[in-house]
Structures
1.
Amino acid sequence: MNAEKGLLIVFTGNGKGKTTAALGMAMRAAGHGMPVLVLQFIKGAWPYGELRSFDKVEEIELKPLGTGFTWTKESLDEDRRLAAEGWEEAVAEIRRGRYRIIVLDELNVVLSYGLLPLNDVIETLRDRNPGVHVVITGRNAPAELIEIADLVTEMKQVKHPYHDQGVKAQKGVEF
Amino acid sequence: MNAEKGLLIVFTGNGKGKTTAALGMAMRAAGHGMPVLVLQFIKGAWPYGELRSFDKVEEIELKPLGTGFTWTKESLDEDRRLAAEGWEEAVAEIRRGRYRIIVLDELNVVLSYGLLPLNDVIETLRDRNPGVHVVITGRNAPAELIEIADLVTEMKQVKHPYHDQGVKAQKGVEF
């Protein structure tokens, strides 16, 4: 196998730190001058303020996708349409290779709700441009994705203040 | 309890993403204009290039500490002295509260090697300035630390390319 092949990296699990780990990776790669694309599959997952600091890092492009998901049975078709639209944009970049790292934030959630045809997603990821590292975040990564991934970390919740102690979520530290 | 108290957050485990999660948190907090201090307890854990992108984010101050650890029995006293020096700097900031978030990167490793008196560290963290969130990373977080932490995530390695497939570590994605 080609040792310089871009990696497929998955951050999953019920603990905190999945998206933040992907963002930290983006910063590190940017430090090497590598262009990074972050596609955010679930709108509102990050408050706008939290993204402002990335504006200063020219190597990183952040793009919200799939606004308007409702996650209800009644609007399943509409949610599927939104997911397909976002995924189409991801596919183009995964094939093109002008970004060295592509983060697909919360894609696991979209997949676990069955909003995209899993086989197509797996195939696209497997046939990705060899120069591209793809980082996928979100709970409930499908087994098929873990199977083809190069590196998988499960963020396991050991302790959580909002559950255990009733502390309010706080601006700037709530991930 | 005071719901606005700063949190003590621990990222531990044998998987990838601990430091990157802390760096991603730093970026998010910076997006809210919060001042962040990152104290790096193990020199060389991050290649210099990876830190360059943080230069552009004025809210984040990165500081390497404890250069020169050798991790050998022969130089235990010297390593202890270096750890104590770095820790002294951390203590001052944890008490002062001019930073809203303080990341103590790889402190768990320093603690698990017994290079600092654990009781002192636990006491300082427990009595931290209430306005400060402290984020601690590294494998093998001591049980006493997990006990007093508000939020603990274990990064669990599910799959790793360098072990499983012999792929070389790659610039910009090796964490």
Note: DSSP finds seven helices and six strands in chain A.
2.
Amino acid sequence: MRLPKPLEHLIEQLQKLPGIGPKNAQRLGLFLLRLPQGEAEAIAEAILEAKKRIFPCPQCGNLTDTSPCSICTDETRRQDLLCVTEDASDVLAMERAGYRGQYVVLEKALNLMDIQDWANMDLSRLKSRLKSGKVQEVILALNPDIDGEVISRMIAAQAMQFGVRVTRLAHGLPVGGDIQFADEITLRQALEGRKEILT
Amino acid sequence: MRLPKPLEHLIEQLQKLPGIGPKNAQRLGLFLLRLPQGEAEAIAEAILEAKKRIFPCPQCGNLTDTSPCSICTDETRRQDLLCVTEDASDVLAMERAGYRGQYVVLEKALNLMDIQDWANMDLSRLKSRLKSGKVQEVILALNPDIDGEVISRMIAAQAMQFGVRVTRLAHGLPVGGDIQFADEITLRQALEGRKEILT
């Protein structure tokens, strides 16, 4: 049996989404076909609309539909803290964690093996923030992998030229995590970063 | 921080999909925004296109873009076997399992508690197939739950009026399944349906 062409095409397209394999794409495709006409259209149009209206903020690189974005224009946020993240979803995570300073979003998944990526890495937003003279501390919120480590050092070198303090998120045990299941590097870093309990 | 409106709307829309929760919807939304313009549009258009061009086959109820569908018009398939399924994804599963007869797709998730569902259940496709006189055997491929059980009996009563043999898929241990993890009803049915090993 061959599937109807438009359904086959839909399933192919849905497989482009992250974490959606062939079986799941088929399930989603059949689900979309069962939806009332208007509702399926609303999903398709939300994709088109978001693609049309959302762009990276020229100041910080975070996703926005206004220029500059709502974070850059928020006067109540601290102007002396600058958090560097790899992409927009990390910004959402930092916001949920209660951070209320400025951001620079690199929005570039770097591949250490690809020298082109390095040459093209755009640090202009970071530099112009540092030049503004308002920033007192750069907080590196890059993923704790080798790429993140290397980018962190590059950025730290830049920031130090401006006499700015550079920090990074602490490594350690995740809250609720079990010590017996922690990998040894995490545990070693949790030990090195141990804190005194103040009574 | 508020998300840009079009992104918020996209995430809301994506949450309508089955198995996509808020976190996953956010991840998919951000992924779609990072895709090149053309690729995101291709996904949206595949949804619109499929909704426009695919409909239930008037003869069997399976999803199709031709009328009647490619299964109903395939002369090489057995005309004397009629398989009754609940929806189009069950047809795909039966095809993968090697079944090469005809289908009737009920395409209606019945809810035993809702008497309206019963009144509205459309058995016209099934009846017109039975009236054609070609069908020798009706194979019930309905899910082994209470609803499936009740529908099976209703359909069996219909088919028997036409003097047609009615069978259903065997219950038993799934292939590769472990006996110690089988529930007792499955195991009892596997025992009742035990087969002689022929050497």
Note: DSSP finds eight helices and six strands in chain B.
